[in-house]
Amino acid sequence: MRPDRDTLVAGYGFVLDEFQLRAMDTLDNGESVLVAAPTGSGKTVVAEYAIAAALADGRRAFYTAPIKALSNQKFHDLRKRHGDQSVGLLTGDNAINADAPIVVMTTEVLRNMIYARSGALERLGIVVLDEVHFLQDAYRGPVWEEVMIHLDHAVRLVCLSATVSNAAEVAEWITTVRGETGCIVEERRPVRLENLFMVADRSNDRLHLLPTLIRGRPNPEVARLDSEAPRRRNDGAARHRPRRTLATPSRLDVIERLHQEGMLPAIFFIFSRKACDEAAAQCRKAAVRLTTDLERDRIRGIVDARLVGIEADDLEVLGYERFIDQLENGVAAHHAGMVPPFKEAVEACFVEGLVRVVFATETLAVGINMPARSVVIEKLTKFTGEHHAFLTAGEFTQLTGRAGRRGIDTLGHAVVLWNPFVSFDQVAALASSKSFHLKSAFRPTYNMAANLVRSYSSDEARHLL
User: Fold this and answer.
1) pLDDT for 376-419, tens place per residue?
2) Which residues contact 450 (CB under 8 A, 6 or more apart)?
3) pLDDT digit string (tens) for 136-165?
4) Which of 77, 202, 219, 354 has minimal Cβ neighbours within 10 Å of its Cβ?
5) Tens digit of pLDDT for each residue in 181-207?
6) Are strands 246-247 and 374-377 parallel, antiparallel or unpaired?
7) 224 three-state secondary structure
8) Which secondary structure element, helix H or strand E, spans residue 197, and what is its range?
9) Which residues 6+ apart lie within 8 Å of 54 measured at CB?
10) Could you give the CA distance from residue 247 to residue 420 in angstroms, rounded to a whole number?
11) Separation CA 312–CA 159 (nearest Å)
12) Which residues does residue 61 pair with via DSSP β-bridges, in sequence order?
């Protein structure tokens, strides 16, 4: 007989929220569930309950994530809860204990298993689809839909997402392809978020840090300030004669101001790996130091433990001296171009509160447990691989969701820096947006068609497509 719910969720040290209990009720009723809730609200507890229940029923559980860094973190988290022998990892790069009752993997790995009719799918009871809003990703989104459609209908799904405005519609679609799926929406953020706007005024050598919104509407003081600034066209020419000389605050000035305001630790989101490295190097060159001697010793210990076994020559090639010097001063870069031991050292130091400033690409916004007191967004545009695009409301919410540490902070700060190419009205519109409509990015591909023809009869393949 399966243990009761209190036994399965024991050890969390906090009272479960109503939305978590409703999601667990849905699973206990034999349904799949979509949980849409803000970052840091505790969606993972629902997934861990589903996994524990599957194991208690003698079934296997898969936990899928969109990126390898998140897969690696969930692998370590689940091992702490269930033991090393009970959890495996499959990411393409790593294959650890693949026959374990719980296996963490990227979504593509599961899709490939389904098409190959892998024996690993036997006795599978639960699949967690973390960051399920990735199904709208133009390049990888169809993989999530393929998994939902082709996975054996006896397997229940636990779909986790940041808040979306059409969660009920998404759950209804999942119901049509998989059977009854409950929709659980939680809009309350566990830590209140304050949106701020920072601009350097060279006319009087001031650094303004002002609320973006006042009672839910654009701050008129900031709007007036911004209207007096030079606006730039795409060719770089000024649109009108400025009454003020405004500028984007320098990273060093931003760090100093946040430090003065007690708003560190902070994550600076920069949509370029190279720029992240350059920003950390800039802090090193400026001799920025945000740690005590005791903290520096602890950082050194964490790094040594993570890098054990790597030869000195290899460390030199990887830029170890620069890396450790930055880290000991409380500054680091974090992106997919770093070797895993370096990234893991940064994450471990940040979780312990030893690193005060991290320059990161947007991959850090995808589920990795590295919340900060503040988030700084330097630009509201990013390169998609083909062109520069303005951040969507969903992307902005995903980034700012890192601000505010549950159980530590009562307030998180999302700071957007002034930019001559973006008006304050655009910033305020993003900060006030409550509509994050999730839509399918499905598109048939040759690879998909080949998999369908190989795995099904022609009539079944046509129907599925």
Assistant:
1) 999 888 876 677 788 888 888 888 888 888 778 889 999 999 98
2) none
3) 887 788 889 999 999 999 999 999 988 678
4) 202
5) 999 998 888 889 999 999 998 878 889
6) unpaired
7) helix
8) strand 192-201
9) 60, 61, 125, 126
10) 8
11) 44
12) 102, 126
C-beta of residue 91 within 8 angstroms of C-beta of residue 67 = no
Are the beta carbons of 198 and 417 closer than 8 angstroms? yes
Which run of H or of E encompasses 207? Answer: strand 206-211
Q: Pull the structure tokens for residue 251.
A: 């990273």
Give the length of the chain.
465
What whole-number distance in Å separates Cα of residue 195 and Cα of residue 27?
Answer: 36
Residue carrying the six token digits 């009562």: 410
- CA-CA-CA-CA torsion for 161, 163, 166, 171, nearest 10 degrees? 30
* Amino acid, res. 52: A
Which position has the token pair 């992240």?
A: 276
Instruction: Tally Cβ neighbours within 10 Å of residue 214.
Output: 13
Alpha carbon of 372 to those of 265, 337, 358, 426, 443: distances in Å? 5, 22, 9, 25, 37
**413 vs 196: CA distance, rounded Å:** 7
Q: Calculate ∠ Cα 72-77-78, nearest 5°.
A: 100
Side chain identity at residue 39, one-letter code: T
Range of lowest pLDDT (82-86, 108-112, 166-170, 368-372): 368-372
Query: CA 50 to CA 20: how far, in whole Å?
Result: 11
Contact (CB, 8 A) for 63 and 73: no
